[in-house]
Amino acid sequence: MSLSDKGSATQDVIIRRLRKYDKELIINDFNNLNNEVLFSRFGLSVQPRGLHNYISNMFADAAFILGAFPDSCLRSVGELRLIPDQKHHIAEAAFTVEKVGQDQGIGDALLSRLITVAQNRGFREVHMLCLATNQKLRRLAAKHNAELVLVPGQVEASLTTPWPTPFSTAKEITDAYRAFARAVLSWSNHVHASNEAQD
User: Fold this and answer.
1) What domain range is 143 assigned to?
2) Pairing between strand 154-160 and 147-151?
3) pLDDT digit of tens for each residue in the chain (199 aa)?
4) Is residue 41 one of the residues assigned to a domain?
5) Global pTM exceeds 0.70
């Protein structure tokens, strides 16, 4: 699938949980982010050493990391982590989408999955911070019925998650299984194509 096939991008995208053994994929993905995307994500200019340190600590604090693979390559990384010292089970969500994968619904699909993950783990609210000029993320947060609050230079989006249900739990399990099955199929097709190219 080509990333230019916008009509099928979200339908074909594989979203799965990322583990520590996916670190090289995450490094490659962050290396593909241009300065504009990095600035939107962190709110400041990021030096290579700082980015390396961030990725090294990404899985700390029991963070839940998801990755989107619209073309069998990691193009988007989403993070969900509990906000320290919060007694009301509030989580913070953040994600990036490579320039080549933007405006195709990948961020929407990834945020939807993060919200489901938060719901099933009893997080009552999910917060996101973005630059006040980040109109894409502001529209995406509003689409998910987030309350937007302006703070100096930034916008804080707060989403209230519903209580977990058997349906939401089954949805997460089904989505994970579907992503695994499609990842295996994609890998098999890649190996088959490689073998044909060598013949």
Assistant:
1) 6-198
2) antiparallel
3) 334 344 444 556 889 999 999 999 999 999 999 999 999 999 888 888 999 999 999 988 778 999 999 888 899 999 999 887 666 689 999 999 999 889 999 999 999 999 999 999 989 899 999 999 999 999 999 999 999 999 888 999 999 998 899 999 988 888 887 777 766 665 555 444 455 555 5
4) yes
5) yes
Using CA atoms, how far residue 32 sits from 29, 38, 75, 98, 104, in Å, is: 5, 10, 9, 7, 17
- Name the domain count of the chain: 1
CATH number of the domain that 189 lies in? 3.40.630.30
Can you tell me whether residue 153 is helix, strand or coil? coil
Record the tokens describing residue 134, joined without a space.
């980040």
> In 10 A of CB 62, how many CB atoms?
9
Q: Is residue 59 included in any domain, yes or no? A: yes
Asked whether residue 108 is domain-assigned, the answer is yes
